[in-house]
Amino acid sequence: MKTAMKTKTFLLSGLLVALVLGGVVSFYASSHPDGLEYVAEEVGFIDSAGDHAAADGPMADYAVKGVDDQRLAGGLAGVIGIGVTLLLAGGIAFAVRRRGGSGADGADVDRAPVPSER
Amino acid sequence: MHVPDGFLDAPTSIATGAVAVAGIAVALRGARRELDDRTAPMAGLVAAFVFAAQMLNFPVGAGTSGHLLGGALAAVLVGPWTAALCLAVVLLVQGLLFADGGITALGTNISLFSIVAVGVGWLVFAGLRAVLPTRLSIVPAAAGVAAFVSVPVTAAVFVGLFAIGGQAPVPLDTMLTAMLGWHVLIGVGEALITGLVVSSVVAARPDLCFGARPALRARREALVASTGQQAAA
Protein backbone atom coordinates (compact mmCIF):
# COMPACT_ATOMS: atom_id res chain seq x y z
CA MET A 1 0.00 0.00 0.00
CA LYS A 2 1.36 3.39 -0.90
CA THR A 3 2.23 5.66 1.95
CA ALA A 4 -0.08 8.66 2.24
CA MET A 5 1.31 12.16 2.46
CA LYS A 6 1.58 13.50 5.99
CA THR A 7 -1.20 15.89 6.93
CA LYS A 8 1.23 18.70 7.71
CA THR A 9 3.03 18.26 4.39
CA PHE A 10 -0.28 18.20 2.55
CA LEU A 11 -1.60 21.37 4.21
CA LEU A 12 1.65 23.28 3.76
CA SER A 13 1.90 22.26 0.09
CA GLY A 14 -1.67 23.39 -0.48
CA LEU A 15 -0.96 26.74 1.18
CA LEU A 16 2.20 27.16 -0.89
CA VAL A 17 0.24 26.56 -4.10
CA ALA A 18 -2.35 29.16 -3.01
CA LEU A 19 0.38 31.69 -2.16
CA VAL A 20 2.11 31.20 -5.52
CA LEU A 21 -1.22 31.55 -7.36
CA GLY A 22 -2.37 34.63 -5.44
CA GLY A 23 1.04 36.21 -4.94
CA VAL A 24 2.75 35.58 -8.28
CA VAL A 25 0.50 34.07 -10.95
CA SER A 26 -2.27 36.63 -10.28
CA PHE A 27 -0.12 39.28 -12.02
CA TYR A 28 -0.70 37.43 -15.29
CA ALA A 29 -4.47 37.10 -14.86
CA SER A 30 -6.71 38.50 -17.58
CA SER A 31 -7.67 42.11 -16.93
CA HIS A 32 -10.74 41.93 -19.14
CA PRO A 33 -14.10 42.44 -17.43
CA ASP A 34 -15.61 39.22 -16.09
CA GLY A 35 -18.77 37.65 -17.50
CA LEU A 36 -21.20 39.70 -15.40
CA GLU A 37 -19.36 43.00 -15.97
CA TYR A 38 -19.14 42.36 -19.70
CA VAL A 39 -22.84 41.55 -19.97
CA ALA A 40 -23.63 44.64 -17.88
CA GLU A 41 -21.73 46.78 -20.40
CA GLU A 42 -23.21 44.99 -23.39
CA VAL A 43 -26.82 44.96 -22.21
CA GLY A 44 -26.49 48.40 -20.67
CA PHE A 45 -26.86 48.27 -16.90
CA ILE A 46 -23.22 48.85 -15.92
CA ASP A 47 -23.98 52.49 -15.06
CA SER A 48 -26.26 51.42 -12.22
CA ALA A 49 -23.17 50.17 -10.36
CA GLY A 50 -22.23 52.59 -7.59
CA ASP A 51 -18.75 53.39 -6.33
CA HIS A 52 -17.56 50.88 -3.80
CA ALA A 53 -17.66 52.13 -0.23
CA ALA A 54 -14.16 50.76 0.29
CA ALA A 55 -12.84 51.96 -3.10
CA ASP A 56 -10.27 54.18 -1.35
CA GLY A 57 -9.17 51.45 1.05
CA PRO A 58 -5.47 50.62 1.41
CA MET A 59 -5.82 47.44 -0.65
CA ALA A 60 -8.69 48.34 -2.99
CA ASP A 61 -8.68 46.42 -6.28
CA TYR A 62 -5.96 44.06 -5.07
CA ALA A 63 -3.15 46.62 -4.99
CA VAL A 64 -1.45 47.72 -1.78
CA LYS A 65 -1.40 51.53 -1.72
CA GLY A 66 2.02 53.14 -1.56
CA VAL A 67 3.78 50.26 -3.29
CA ASP A 68 4.86 51.56 -6.69
CA ASP A 69 5.82 48.27 -8.27
CA GLN A 70 2.56 46.84 -9.66
CA ARG A 71 3.73 43.26 -9.45
CA LEU A 72 4.69 43.69 -5.79
CA ALA A 73 1.56 45.67 -4.86
CA GLY A 74 -0.71 43.01 -6.35
CA GLY A 75 1.29 40.08 -5.03
CA LEU A 76 1.35 41.54 -1.54
CA ALA A 77 -2.42 42.11 -1.63
CA GLY A 78 -2.90 38.49 -2.70
CA VAL A 79 -0.68 37.14 0.08
CA ILE A 80 -2.40 39.31 2.73
CA GLY A 81 -5.84 38.28 1.46
CA ILE A 82 -4.89 34.61 1.57
CA GLY A 83 -3.58 35.01 5.13
CA VAL A 84 -6.68 36.81 6.39
CA THR A 85 -9.01 34.32 4.66
CA LEU A 86 -7.06 31.35 6.05
CA LEU A 87 -7.17 32.65 9.62
CA LEU A 88 -10.82 33.69 9.49
CA ALA A 89 -12.15 30.51 7.84
CA GLY A 90 -9.80 28.27 9.83
CA GLY A 91 -10.80 30.03 13.05
CA ILE A 92 -14.51 29.60 12.36
CA ALA A 93 -13.96 25.94 11.44
CA PHE A 94 -12.06 25.29 14.68
CA ALA A 95 -14.75 27.07 16.70
CA VAL A 96 -17.64 25.00 15.30
CA ARG A 97 -15.85 21.63 14.97
CA ARG A 98 -16.66 18.57 17.05
CA ARG A 99 -14.17 18.47 19.90
CA GLY A 100 -11.84 15.62 20.69
CA GLY A 101 -10.71 14.28 17.34
CA SER A 102 -12.97 12.63 14.85
CA GLY A 103 -16.34 11.44 15.94
CA ALA A 104 -19.87 10.49 15.16
CA ASP A 105 -19.96 10.75 11.38
CA GLY A 106 -17.76 7.74 10.91
CA ALA A 107 -14.88 10.04 10.02
CA ASP A 108 -12.65 7.72 11.98
CA VAL A 109 -13.41 4.86 9.63
CA ASP A 110 -12.33 7.06 6.73
CA ARG A 111 -8.98 7.81 8.19
CA ALA A 112 -6.21 6.72 5.86
CA PRO A 113 -3.52 4.60 7.39
CA VAL A 114 -0.63 6.99 7.88
CA PRO A 115 1.98 5.02 9.77
CA SER A 116 4.40 7.90 10.18
CA GLU A 117 1.78 10.24 11.59
CA ARG A 118 1.18 10.28 15.32
CA MET B 1 -19.47 37.21 -10.90
CA HIS B 2 -19.15 39.58 -7.92
CA VAL B 3 -22.21 41.84 -7.87
CA PRO B 4 -21.27 45.49 -7.20
CA ASP B 5 -23.31 47.99 -5.18
CA GLY B 6 -26.19 49.50 -7.10
CA PHE B 7 -27.19 46.70 -9.49
CA LEU B 8 -30.09 45.66 -7.24
CA ASP B 9 -32.44 47.95 -5.33
CA ALA B 10 -32.50 48.25 -1.53
CA PRO B 11 -35.47 45.91 -0.83
CA THR B 12 -33.92 43.13 -2.92
CA SER B 13 -30.52 43.66 -1.30
CA ILE B 14 -32.10 43.55 2.18
CA ALA B 15 -33.98 40.38 1.25
CA THR B 16 -30.84 38.64 -0.07
CA GLY B 17 -29.06 39.88 3.06
CA ALA B 18 -31.67 38.12 5.21
CA VAL B 19 -31.35 34.97 3.09
CA ALA B 20 -27.57 35.10 3.48
CA VAL B 21 -27.75 35.51 7.28
CA ALA B 22 -30.23 32.64 7.57
CA GLY B 23 -28.06 30.52 5.26
CA ILE B 24 -24.95 31.15 7.33
CA ALA B 25 -26.81 30.31 10.55
CA VAL B 26 -27.95 26.98 9.08
CA ALA B 27 -24.46 26.33 7.67
CA LEU B 28 -22.85 26.95 11.07
CA ARG B 29 -25.03 24.17 12.51
CA GLY B 30 -24.50 21.84 9.56
CA ALA B 31 -20.74 22.38 9.44
CA ARG B 32 -20.45 20.98 12.95
CA ARG B 33 -21.13 17.51 11.51
CA GLU B 34 -18.46 17.97 8.84
CA LEU B 35 -15.66 19.43 10.91
CA ASP B 36 -13.35 17.79 13.42
CA ASP B 37 -9.73 18.33 14.47
CA ARG B 38 -8.54 16.74 11.24
CA THR B 39 -10.78 18.54 8.74
CA ALA B 40 -10.92 22.03 10.33
CA PRO B 41 -7.53 23.05 8.86
CA MET B 42 -8.82 21.92 5.45
CA ALA B 43 -11.62 24.49 5.72
CA GLY B 44 -9.06 27.26 6.22
CA LEU B 45 -6.95 25.99 3.34
CA VAL B 46 -9.90 25.61 0.97
CA ALA B 47 -11.10 29.16 1.69
CA ALA B 48 -7.59 30.53 1.15
CA PHE B 49 -7.25 28.54 -2.08
CA VAL B 50 -10.60 29.78 -3.41
CA PHE B 51 -9.56 33.36 -2.58
CA ALA B 52 -6.32 32.91 -4.53
CA ALA B 53 -8.03 31.16 -7.44
CA GLN B 54 -10.62 33.93 -7.73
CA MET B 55 -7.78 36.39 -8.42
CA LEU B 56 -6.93 34.41 -11.55
CA ASN B 57 -9.24 35.65 -14.27
CA PHE B 58 -8.85 33.51 -17.37
CA PRO B 59 -9.82 34.81 -20.83
CA VAL B 60 -13.02 33.34 -22.30
CA GLY B 61 -13.20 35.06 -25.64
CA ALA B 62 -13.49 38.54 -27.08
CA GLY B 63 -12.72 40.93 -24.25
CA THR B 64 -14.24 38.83 -21.50
CA SER B 65 -12.81 36.84 -18.64
CA GLY B 66 -14.01 34.57 -15.88
CA HIS B 67 -12.69 33.14 -12.67
CA LEU B 68 -13.43 30.19 -10.44
CA LEU B 69 -16.52 30.46 -8.26
CA GLY B 70 -15.28 27.56 -6.19
CA GLY B 71 -18.67 26.50 -4.82
CA ALA B 72 -18.58 22.95 -6.17
CA LEU B 73 -14.85 22.63 -5.44
CA ALA B 74 -15.25 23.63 -1.80
CA ALA B 75 -18.37 21.47 -1.34
CA VAL B 76 -16.60 18.34 -2.63
CA LEU B 77 -13.46 18.99 -0.57
CA VAL B 78 -14.93 20.01 2.82
CA GLY B 79 -18.67 19.30 2.60
CA PRO B 80 -21.49 21.66 1.56
CA TRP B 81 -22.12 23.39 4.92
CA THR B 82 -18.47 24.13 5.55
CA ALA B 83 -18.12 25.19 1.90
CA ALA B 84 -20.91 27.75 2.37
CA LEU B 85 -18.98 29.22 5.31
CA CYS B 86 -15.70 29.22 3.34
CA LEU B 87 -17.26 31.12 0.42
CA ALA B 88 -18.89 33.63 2.80
CA VAL B 89 -15.50 34.34 4.39
CA VAL B 90 -13.90 34.79 0.94
CA LEU B 91 -16.62 37.27 -0.07
CA LEU B 92 -16.39 39.16 3.22
CA VAL B 93 -12.61 39.57 2.87
CA GLN B 94 -12.93 40.55 -0.82
CA GLY B 95 -15.69 43.06 -0.17
CA LEU B 96 -14.21 44.71 2.93
CA LEU B 97 -10.49 44.70 2.14
CA PHE B 98 -10.26 44.67 -1.64
CA ALA B 99 -13.41 46.54 -2.80
CA ASP B 100 -14.35 43.44 -4.85
CA GLY B 101 -18.11 42.85 -4.68
CA GLY B 102 -20.29 45.59 -3.18
CA ILE B 103 -20.83 45.94 0.56
CA THR B 104 -24.60 46.41 0.21
CA ALA B 105 -24.40 43.52 -2.28
CA LEU B 106 -22.66 41.22 0.20
CA GLY B 107 -25.93 39.43 0.96
CA THR B 108 -26.58 39.00 -2.75
CA ASN B 109 -23.09 37.65 -3.35
CA ILE B 110 -23.24 35.27 -0.37
CA SER B 111 -26.66 34.06 -1.55
CA LEU B 112 -25.27 33.44 -5.04
CA PHE B 113 -21.92 31.86 -4.09
CA SER B 114 -22.53 30.20 -0.71
CA ILE B 115 -26.09 29.05 -1.30
CA VAL B 116 -26.65 28.70 -5.07
CA ALA B 117 -23.17 27.74 -6.34
CA VAL B 118 -22.35 25.53 -3.35
CA GLY B 119 -25.86 24.07 -3.23
CA VAL B 120 -26.10 23.27 -6.94
CA GLY B 121 -22.50 22.04 -6.99
CA TRP B 122 -23.09 19.68 -4.10
CA LEU B 123 -26.48 18.39 -5.31
CA VAL B 124 -25.16 17.62 -8.81
CA PHE B 125 -22.06 15.96 -7.33
CA ALA B 126 -24.07 13.90 -4.85
CA GLY B 127 -26.56 12.93 -7.58
CA LEU B 128 -23.80 11.74 -9.90
CA ARG B 129 -22.07 9.91 -7.07
CA ALA B 130 -25.30 8.09 -6.29
CA VAL B 131 -25.75 6.75 -9.83
CA LEU B 132 -22.10 6.11 -10.74
CA PRO B 133 -19.97 3.26 -9.40
CA THR B 134 -18.60 3.90 -5.90
CA ARG B 135 -15.01 4.43 -6.97
CA LEU B 136 -12.41 7.05 -6.11
CA SER B 137 -11.68 7.59 -9.80
CA ILE B 138 -15.12 9.05 -10.51
CA VAL B 139 -14.86 11.72 -7.78
CA PRO B 140 -12.84 14.33 -9.76
CA ALA B 141 -14.98 13.87 -12.88
CA ALA B 142 -18.24 14.18 -10.94
CA ALA B 143 -16.85 17.28 -9.21
CA GLY B 144 -15.95 18.77 -12.60
CA VAL B 145 -19.45 18.21 -14.01
CA ALA B 146 -20.99 19.68 -10.85
CA ALA B 147 -18.70 22.70 -11.15
CA PHE B 148 -19.69 23.19 -14.78
CA VAL B 149 -23.41 23.14 -13.99
CA SER B 150 -23.07 25.46 -10.98
CA VAL B 151 -21.79 28.45 -13.01
CA PRO B 152 -24.64 29.03 -15.52
CA VAL B 153 -27.22 28.21 -12.83
CA THR B 154 -25.72 30.86 -10.55
CA ALA B 155 -25.71 33.32 -13.48
CA ALA B 156 -29.39 32.54 -14.17
CA VAL B 157 -30.30 33.10 -10.51
CA PHE B 158 -28.61 36.51 -10.69
CA VAL B 159 -30.79 37.37 -13.71
CA GLY B 160 -33.79 36.27 -11.64
CA LEU B 161 -32.77 38.65 -8.85
CA PHE B 162 -32.28 41.38 -11.45
CA ALA B 163 -35.80 40.74 -12.74
CA ILE B 164 -37.06 41.41 -9.22
CA GLY B 165 -34.91 44.33 -8.17
CA GLY B 166 -32.71 45.42 -11.06
CA GLN B 167 -31.97 49.14 -11.10
CA ALA B 168 -31.88 49.55 -14.88
CA PRO B 169 -34.61 48.88 -17.44
CA VAL B 170 -33.00 46.27 -19.66
CA PRO B 171 -34.48 43.45 -21.73
CA LEU B 172 -34.28 40.44 -19.43
CA ASP B 173 -34.32 37.83 -22.19
CA THR B 174 -31.29 39.44 -23.85
CA MET B 175 -29.59 39.61 -20.48
CA LEU B 176 -30.37 35.97 -19.67
CA THR B 177 -29.07 34.78 -23.06
CA ALA B 178 -25.85 36.78 -22.69
CA MET B 179 -25.30 35.69 -19.07
CA LEU B 180 -25.89 32.01 -19.89
CA GLY B 181 -23.71 32.13 -23.01
CA TRP B 182 -20.67 33.56 -21.26
CA HIS B 183 -21.12 31.55 -18.09
CA VAL B 184 -21.34 28.25 -19.94
CA LEU B 185 -17.87 29.08 -21.26
CA ILE B 186 -16.66 30.15 -17.82
CA GLY B 187 -18.18 26.90 -16.50
CA VAL B 188 -15.78 24.92 -18.70
CA GLY B 189 -12.88 26.64 -16.92
CA GLU B 190 -14.57 26.03 -13.58
CA ALA B 191 -14.91 22.32 -14.43
CA LEU B 192 -11.27 21.96 -15.49
CA ILE B 193 -9.87 23.72 -12.40
CA THR B 194 -12.22 21.83 -10.06
CA GLY B 195 -11.43 18.45 -11.63
CA LEU B 196 -7.69 19.13 -11.48
CA VAL B 197 -7.68 20.26 -7.84
CA VAL B 198 -9.98 17.46 -6.65
CA SER B 199 -7.93 14.82 -8.46
CA SER B 200 -4.74 16.18 -6.83
CA VAL B 201 -6.29 15.97 -3.37
CA VAL B 202 -7.73 12.50 -4.04
CA ALA B 203 -4.30 11.33 -5.25
CA ALA B 204 -2.45 12.71 -2.22
CA ARG B 205 -4.94 12.26 0.63
CA PRO B 206 -8.34 10.86 -0.37
CA ASP B 207 -9.38 10.88 3.30
CA LEU B 208 -9.17 14.70 3.28
CA CYS B 209 -11.72 14.94 0.44
CA PHE B 210 -15.21 14.97 1.96
CA GLY B 211 -16.88 13.82 -1.26
CA ALA B 212 -14.55 10.83 -1.57
CA ARG B 213 -15.50 9.28 1.78
CA PRO B 214 -18.05 6.71 0.52
CA ALA B 215 -15.66 5.52 -2.20
CA LEU B 216 -12.80 5.31 0.28
CA ARG B 217 -14.95 3.34 2.72
CA ALA B 218 -16.00 0.93 -0.05
CA ARG B 219 -12.39 0.41 -1.07
CA ARG B 220 -11.37 -0.33 2.50
CA GLU B 221 -14.24 -2.76 3.02
CA ALA B 222 -13.31 -4.58 -0.19
CA LEU B 223 -9.73 -4.76 1.03
CA VAL B 224 -10.78 -6.14 4.42
CA ALA B 225 -13.07 -8.71 2.72
CA SER B 226 -10.32 -9.93 0.38
CA THR B 227 -7.74 -10.29 3.17
CA GLY B 228 -10.36 -12.10 5.22
CA GLN B 229 -10.90 -14.59 2.39
CA GLN B 230 -7.16 -15.12 2.08
CA ALA B 231 -6.91 -15.81 5.79
CA ALA B 232 -9.77 -18.31 5.61
CA ALA B 233 -8.24 -20.16 2.65
Automatic annotation (TrEMBL), chain A:
Alphabetical UniProt keywords: Cell membrane, Membrane, Transmembrane, Transmembrane helix
Subcellular localization: Cell membrane
InterPro entries, sorted: PDGLE_dom (IPR025937)
Compositional bias (Basic and acidic residues): 108-118
Domain PDGLE: 8-98
Pfam short name (any one): PDGLE
Region of interest called Disordered, as start-end residue ranges on this chain: 99-118
Membrane-spanning segments: 72-96
Main location: membrane
Protein's UniProt name: PDGLE domain-containing protein
Organism encoding this protein: Nocardioides aestuarii
Top-level taxonomy: Bacteria, Bacillati, Actinomycetota, Actinomycetes, Propionibacteriales
UniProtKB/TrEMBL annotation, chain B:
Membrane topology: Multi-pass membrane protein
Subcellular location: Cell membrane
Keyword Membrane: yes
Origin: domain of life: Bacteria
Chief localization: membrane
Keywords, in A-Z order: Cell membrane, Membrane, Transmembrane, Transmembrane helix, Transport
One Pfam family named in its UniProt record: CbiM
Transmembrane regions listed in the UniProt entry: 6-28, 40-60, 72-98, 110-132, 138-164, 176-198
Protein name: Energy-coupling factor ABC transporter permease
The species this protein was found in: Nocardioides aestuarii
